[in-house]
């Protein structure tokens, strides 16, 4: 696995790349990609960091695992490549965005325009074997991405963290809530959304309201 990650992140994360757990993880990922179909493609593994530099991070959305279907994962949590059918969670994200902001439901599920404005779309696990959800969990990725969250918390101020669902909410303990904003809700998956834990959270307008209050440019959520 090549660590093709933006220099702004390397400045903060270089010590991690030298640790035994990360070297083991690198070897594991390399062997998996050699012997199985895995997602996202190798050049997109660190896409979230390359589309959103450390200095630009204003908002963090935390996902769990990349999509494991053909052509879906592009290295940004909840995002799919252009032309790919929107997965159920993404449909619900867009429906809430539509209700919250009154902007039209987008054709593309590619969230790169959000990343380019300072939204870090971070999966806790950055790779997965095709059609095997969770297959690369507990191999070291979570240790690495926890350090990413802690580093953002320590080195930056006034970042809005969006924690959607039980898994993401567990990351709250990594965040200094005295200098960052944490918004929590249910997960956008149909199971959670249909029980009333997702729709109406207004996280898109609330995020922009928080950014405005600290003098940051708001996010144009329209795709």
UniProtKB/TrEMBL annotation:
Belongs to the uracil-DNA glycosylase (UDG) superfamily. UNG family. It comes from Winogradskyella marina. The gene is ung. GO terms for molecular function: uracil DNA N-glycosylase activity. SUPFAM superfamilies: Uracil-DNA glycosylase-like (SSF52141). Its EC number is 3.2.2.27. This is Uracil-DNA glycosylase. It comes from the Bacteria. It is found in: Cytoplasm. SMART domains: UDG, UreE_C. It catalyses: Hydrolyzes single-stranded DNA or mismatched double-stranded DNA and polynucleotides, releasing free uracil. Keywords: Cytoplasm, DNA damage, DNA repair, Glycosidase, Hydrolase. The active site is at 65 (proton acceptor). Residues 50-211 form the Uracil-DNA glycosylase-like domain. The keyword Chloroplast does not apply. PANTHER family: URACIL-DNA GLYCOSYLASE. Excises uracil residues from the DNA which can arise as a result of misincorporation of dUMP residues by DNA polymerase or due to deamination of cytosine. InterPro entries: UDG_fam1, Ura-DNA_Glyclase_AS, Uracil-DNA_glycosylase-like, Uracil-DNA_glycosylase-like_sf. The lineage of its organism: Bacteria, Pseudomonadati, Bacteroidota, Flavobacteriia, Flavobacteriales. It is an enzyme of class 3 (hydrolase).
């Amino acid at each position: 696995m090549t660590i093709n990650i933006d220099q702004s992140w390397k400045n903060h994360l270089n010590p991690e790349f030298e640790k035994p757990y990360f070297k083991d993880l690198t070897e594991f990922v390399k062997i998996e990609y050699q012997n199985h179909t895995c997602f996202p493609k190798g050049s997109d593994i660190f896409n979230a960091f390359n589309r959103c530099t450390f200095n630009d991070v204003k908002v963090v959305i935390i996902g769990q695992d990349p999509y494991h279907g053909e052509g879906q994962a592009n290295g940004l949590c909840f995002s799919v490549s252009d032309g790919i059918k929107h997965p159920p969670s993404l449909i619900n994200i867009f429906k809430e965005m539509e209700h919250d902001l009154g902007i039209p439901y987008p054709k593309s599920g590619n969230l790169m325009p959000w990343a380019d404005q300072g939204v870090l779309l971070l999966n806790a696990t950055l790779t997965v074997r095709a059609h095997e959800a969770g297959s690369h969990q507990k191999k070291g990725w979570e240790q690495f991405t926890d350090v990413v969250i802690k580093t953002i918390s320590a080195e930056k101020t006034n970042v809005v963290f969006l924690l959607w669902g039980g898994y993401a909410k567990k990351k709250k303990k990594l965040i200094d809530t005295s200098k960052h904003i944490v918004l929590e809700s249910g997960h956008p998956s149909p199971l959670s959304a249909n029980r009333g834990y997702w729709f109406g959270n207004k996280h898109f307008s609330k995020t922009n309201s928080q950014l405005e209050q600290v003098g940051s440019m708001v996010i144009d959520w329209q795709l």
